[in-house]
Amino acid sequence: MVFTSFTFILLFLPVTLLLYVIFPSIKWKNGVLIVTSLLFYAWGEFQYTFVMIGSITLAWVAGCLIDKARSHYWKRVFLILGISGIISILLYFKYAGFLINNANLVIHLFRPAASIANVPVHLPIGISFYTFQSVSYLVDLYRGKIGVQRSLTKLALIKTFFPQLIAGPIVRYADVCQYIDERVLSVENFTFGARRFIYGFAQKILIADIVGKIADSIFGLAKSNSPDLSAPVAWLGGICYFFQIYYDFCGYSNMAIGMARMFGFHFLENFKHPYAARSVTDFWRRWHISLSSWFRDYLYIPLGGNRAAPSRMYVNLFIVFSLCGLWHGASWTYIIWGLFHGSILVIERQRWMSGLIARLPRVASLAYVWLAVLVGWVIFRSESLQVILTYLRRMFEPVSGSIYARPLGSFLDPEICMALAAAALFSFDIVPELSVRRMSLAGSYAFSAVLVAIFVVSIIYLSGSTFSPFIYYRF
Fold this sequence. Notes:
The chain is mainly alpha-helical. The chain has two domains: 6-183, no CATH class; 189-278 and 360-474, no CATH class. Helix content is 69%, strand content 0%. It contains 19 helices and no strands. It has helices at residues 6-22, 26-45, 49-68, 72-110, 127-143, 152-160, 162-165, 173-176, 187-223, 231-262, 280-286, 289-300, 310-328, 332-348, 351-359, 362-381, 385-396, 414-425, 445-463. Helix 10 crosses helix 16. The longest helix has 39 residues, at 72-110. The two termini are 16 Å apart.
């Protein structure tokens, strides 16, 4: 089940909210959320619901053992065992095929006829997200930042809560544990949540899905090495995907944050206008904040972070971003994307580069960030190294494509142009409504009316569109 389906919007969410309001005690409300969240996941992944439950149970058992251990040594043992068990589930479902394929490449160098059988394994939706949630819970418990959760059902409430279950944000137990036994269900929270949900819904339907059609079409030309992929067309495809992935995932995060607020939970922000960043380093402080901060707190800092010698710090950055790329998918293209960003961050840490960025005019720094990030998204979107090379060559060749190639205008129509204009406009915090402080009950009735109109338009577009799942569902 996806947030942008009529089943979810017209049936699942209203019924869940109604049941949540009807039951008076927090205990029953928690039960409603657990049952409906499991139903939400089982709707399309029934058999893999048990994988999620197993991962959560393993985290709960390991957490109880860490809490009961009398010595630091045994706490560390149980931490390592718990994390190893949780990560092993992720490794099997997400990376087994990738590891076997690469092992076979090495084996073929020495024994061409030999190989390891590689049986395709289905990737459970959301496994990367709930795995990282469980790891952060155990590490924070080990560090003494949180207390143990002795109730399996209460831990499951946080891990299975449907707004963030499939594609994040990566909600840490430490950030939301205060809402397990006490939270406020109020008109103000509901109003804020509804507004945020509608805004995210519109981002997905009215921007991401519209420009995404053009991106898919043009990247398909690169995959087939079509002569129609001229330089202008390649740039258009890159720009469309540049906006598609932002508004697709930011839209999902806004919908998740909004729904959580309807139920009384306060999720942290996951995007803070990343395309308004002055550097790529700044971009990563604003983009998918729950993931970048996770890698910072649980990998980069333990490796030494900025305190290490420069050479070691650069190695740490490459480790973090290569794993960040691998987190997104079991493919070398994702690893290359991660190393690409790691390389830029290493360069930006050089004194001459940081000084240059600081002196650049605002327009120039913005152009630099957009160009670097756009090239990165081309790498991220491409399905193979060959497609990456083909696409980038077509983008940067002075003359590329056949003289009979499709003109740029054939990909554009008023709808696409309006979506691109809106995408560029809302990349910046220039509209007062979009700040969190304005999304309260005190907001103007006019703004509410505009949002209702936008929601109606989004529903109309949704009724005439084909199924388009969120990009981050597959991660």
